[in-house]
Specification:
2 domains; 1 helix; 305 residues; mainly beta; Pnp Oxidase, Chain A; elongated; 52% strand; 19 strands
Length: 305
């Protein structure tokens, strides 16, 4: 290959994170949008004479960072950055619903609680029981009368206090400012719950805000106060194009890369989809001064016509 060839770069890096000791691959990053290498060094000068001019320079403190953004994130990649392994489990998750009260005549319950005039049904999606809503004794359910927007809690015109309902102390009977719960099964574990209200407290069409928990299978991702990302062997792959228009495979290796603890995920409803930003810091290996190596293959990728 002509050693004087010049290259242009217009391709991202595909990264592979590996265990430094075993070289076992831990994760493949193949959806990066950007992967920018930033190289800095500190230079200090001996100054003196008229005008205090710079006379001699010393350069050191080499710092190499890779600033990356990933278009996608997975539980496993997130675990690399948080330093805490993700896991699949069943746990209680939070749900807030704003529901329109309906008359007890259409509840489907043969004998509604005594004193009940209206009800709402939790855990529904497209007319079917979905969430398996369950009141948990260690995570109490909060029930309020709400405004039409489904966000604002209504207040008492006299006291200014939130209009809140508590669970009735006697099963099968509701009194003012209480509700009674009836589980309504439509196939295990899809169970909804119907909350019945005193006839003079809630009328048909009123908004009821219910804050509760239900059991769901989830992939749990944790950011812990005592867990931080590790140091990895990182290998990358990209393309360099020469002045003749041919692409050459370029291999990049960071023998010792510390994954920075700082990372950012944006949650926003507009514009381009949010990206996951993270930083790699290249460290000096134990047995070498080579912090980053790039190997450009002599052979180019054949064009097909």
């Amino acid at each position: 290959m002509n050693g004087d060839l010049r290259y242009g770069s217009r391709d991202v890096l595909d990264f592979t994170f590996k265990d430094i000791a075993t070289r076992k691959p831990l994760f493949y990053f193949e959806s990066l949008k950007t992967s920018e290498m930033d190289t800095k060094a500190a230079t200090v000068y001996a100054k003196g004479g008229r005008g205090n001019s710079q006379l001699i320079a010393w350069t050191g403190s080499r710092i190499i960072t890779f600033n990356c953004t990933d278009a996608l994130i997975s539980p496993k990649s997130f675990a690399l950055f948080s330093g805490k392994r993700s896991q699949k489990l069943t746990k209680l998750v939070h749900k807030k619903e704003a529901l329109k009260a309906m008359p007890t005549s259409g509840s489907g319950v043969t004998t509604p609680p005594t004193g009940a005039g209206t009800y709402v049904e939790l855990g529904m999606m497209n007319g079917e029981a979905k969430y398996g809503a369950t009141v948990d004794t260690t995570h109490p359910m909060f029930v309020y009368k709400g405004e039409a927007n489904g966000v604002t809690v209504s207040t008492d015109s006299t006291t200014g206090a939130d209009i809140e309902f508590t669970k009735a102390t006697t099963t099968g009977t509701v009194t003012t400012k209480t509700y009674d719960v009836t589980a309504f099964a439509s196939g295990t574990p899809n169970t909804s719950e119907k909350l019945f209200f005193f006839s003079s407290d809630v009328t048909e069409g009123d908004i009821i805000i219910v804050d509760y928990y239900y059991s769901e299978k989830v992939t749990e991702i944790v950011i812990a106060s005592d867990s931080f990302p590790d140091t990895f062997l990182v290998e990358g792959l990209t393309l360099f194009r020469d002045e003749n228009g041919y692409d050459h495979i370029a291999h990049l290796s960071i023998p010792k890369a510390k994954l920075a603890s700082d990372f950012k995920i944006s949650f926003k409803p507009d514009g381009d989809p949010a990206t996951f930003a993270f930083t790699l810091n290249a460290l000096k290996p134990i047995d070498s001064t080579d912090m980053v190596l790039m190997d450009i293959e002599d052979d180019y990728i054949d064009k097909t016509y």
